[in-house]
Amino acid sequence: MANSDPVYLRVVEDLRRQIVDGTLPPGAPIPSRHQITRKYSVGETAARHALRVLAQEGLIIGRVGSGHRVRERPTLLPLHRTRTTEPLAAFAADVQSGGRHPTCTWRSELADAPPEIAQRLRVSEWSPVIRVRSVLRGDGRPLQLLTSYEPVEFGQSQAPEEGSGERRSAAFRLAAGGTPITEIGETVHVRVPQPTESDLLELPAGVQVLHVERTYWAGDRAVETTDAVIPGDRFRLVYGIPVSL
Amino acid sequence: MANSDPVYLRVVEDLRRQIVDGTLPPGAPIPSRHQITRKYSVGETAARHALRVLAQEGLIIGRVGSGHRVRERPTLLPLHRTRTTEPLAAFAADVQSGGRHPTCTWRSELADAPPEIAQRLRVSEWSPVIRVRSVLRGDGRPLQLLTSYEPVEFGQSQAPEEGSGERRSAAFRLAAGGTPITEIGETVHVRVPQPTESDLLELPAGVQVLHVERTYWAGDRAVETTDAVIPGDRFRLVYGIPVSL
DNA sequence: CGCGCAAAGTTGGAGTCACAGGTAGCGGCC
DNA sequence: GGCCGCTACCTGTGACTCCAACTTTGCGCG
C-alpha cells in the first residue's frame, strides 16, 4: 500500500513501529546506514534520511562512532504550577523530589518594556521595568530559564544586581507588604528554542520547549509577569484545578 | 568566529536572523537552493540542509514549484482550561470566539484499561472501561483529539455508540446526580505526534503536540480521565490559578 | 596476562548529479 | 483583449562519493 510513498518513509515507519511496540527496547542498537541500505534495499541517502527523521522525532539518538540507539525515554519530571508567589520554592521542591540539588543564579537590570511585556503588565510600551533573568539548575545542570518583569514602582533596586539563590520577587514583596496577590494567569505554548536558549539549556537537537507566561495580579493591577522556558523532553506541567461548583 | 561550525549553520543563522528581526517579513520569498549556493558559496547539500532546518523550526514553509516563504505565524488560539465538567463547552467557546464553528464527533466502546490508564483511574490493570474517542473540529477542520476513559460503573451504555455533538461525560453525569467533582488534575507535556494523530489532525511536518492528561476526582475516587492531543502550532493553553492565601 | 594501539565501523558534514511533479509567468494565438 | 499552453524555475526525493572525527574491538607485543 502507498507504494508511491518516498522510500525513506518505509524505513522510518518500520523502525518506528518496532520502537513503539517494544520490539526495539530503549537502548537497543538501530541498524547502521550500511545495514539499512542492505536490509531495506534502499540507497544510502534514504537510510540517512530515515535515521535523521527518527532522531528529529526524539525516538533514537545517534553518537558519532558508536551508532544509533533507541532513546531512553527520560521520565518526565513533574513541575507543579501552584498557587504560590514564590515560583522558586515549587521548582526547588520538584527538583529535590527528583533527587537533585536545586540551585539558581539571577541577574537583574533596568530595561524598557517591549510591546508584548507592556501589554501583559498593562503599562505603556517601552516604559521602564526591572528585568530579572534567572537560570534554574538541578545538580548544576540547567533545567529552566526564567525571565521576569516588574514595573519599576514595585521593584526594589533599579541598579543592576547579580546573585544566586532566592531573590524576592515583586509579587512576594507586595504580598508580604499587605497587598495580596489575588490571581495568577498562565498561558502555555510550545515553540522551537532560540539558539541562546538551546545553548543555555544544553538542549539536544529536535527538542522543543514549553513557554509558560505567568502574570501575577493584585486586584486589577498586574504586579509581575514571568516567562519560563522549559525543556519539553524533561518536564511535564502539573495543574490542580479546584472545582468551585 | 566559530569558523569550524558546519557551513549550513552559517546559512541557517543568517536567514534566521533576517526572519526574526523582520528583514524578511512573513510571506517574503526565501532564496532558492541554487541562489543560496551562489550567494553563500556553499554546496547544494548545505543549502538544502539549511532550508530543511528552517522549515523544521517552523520559520519557513516550502511548496513544490513555488519556493520557500517566511511562514505567517498563526496567532495561537487560547484554549481555556477551566473548572468545568464539560470540556466541550470550553472548547466550543474558545473556537467560537476565534470566529469558527465548533463541531464534534465521537465513538464510544468497551475496552480494557492499559496500565497507564488504570493507574490514573485507580483501577486494576486491564479492567473494563468505556473509551470514548472524539475529534473536535472548527469549521470542519480537525483541531483537537480527545480520548476519555470512564470505569464501567460510571458509564451509561457499554455498547459501542457513535454520535456527534454533545456526549455527557461520566463526570458531568455524576455531578448532575449529586456526586460533585471536587478537583481536576491536569498534566501537560510535549511530544511528537503519532502517525495516526498527524493524519487525523492534518499536521504539517515538524509540528509537535501538546498532550494534556486530565483526571476528574470526586473525593478520592477518580471518575474519568481524558487525553487531549492539541496541535502545538495553533493553540496555547490558558490557566487561571486562584490564590487562596 | 595485561595493556596499548591500530583497524574497522559509524555518524555527521559536504559536494555533485539527476529526475519527477508542481507553479507561475510570459508569449503567442484566437 | 483575453485565454491557453509552454517554458523556466523550484522543491522533494534519491543515488553516489569523499572525508573528518569518534568509538569499539580485537590483536599483537611487551
Could you explain how this protein is built, in words?
Chains A, B: It comes from Microbispora corallina. Chains A, B: Residues 5-73 form the HTH gntR-type domain. Chains A, B: Keywords: DNA-binding, Transcription, Transcription regulation. Chains A, B: InterPro entries: Bact_HTH_transcr_reg (IPR050679), Chorismate_lyase_/UTRA_dom_sf (IPR028978), Tscrpt_reg_HTH_GntR (IPR000524), UTRA (IPR011663), WH-like_DNA-bd_sf (IPR036388), WH_DNA-bd_sf (IPR036390). Chains A, B: This is GntR family transcriptional regulator. The structure is a homodimer of 245-residue chains. Chain A is elongated, with a radius of gyration of 23 Å. In chain A, strand 1 and strand 2 form a beta hairpin. The mean pLDDT of chain A is 88. Chain A has helices at 7-20, 33-40, 44-56, 87-97, 115-121, 170-176, 195-200, and strands at residues 60-63, 67-70, 77-80, 102-112, 128-138, 141-151, 161-164, 183-191, 209-218, 221-231, 235-242. Chain A folds into two domains: 8-70, Orthogonal Bundle (Arc Repressor Mutant, subunit A), CATH 1.10.10.10; 77-239, 3-Layer(aba) Sandwich (Chorismate lyase), CATH 3.40.1410. In chain A, the strands form three sheets. Chain A has a seven-stranded antiparallel β-sheet with strand order 7-4-5-6-10-9-8, with helices on both faces. Chain A has a two-stranded antiparallel sheet with strand order 1-2. Helices cover 27% and strands 36% of the residues of chain A. Chain A is an alpha+beta fold and 245 residues long. Chain A binds chain B through residues 13, 16, 20, 56-59, 76, 78, 81-83, 85, 175, 180-192, 195, 208, 210, 232-233, 235-245, and chain B through 13, 16, 56-59, 76, 78, 81-83, 85, 175, 180-192, 194-195, 206, 208, 210, 232-233, 235-245. The first copy, chain A, binds a DNA duplex (30 and 30 nucleotides) through helix 3.
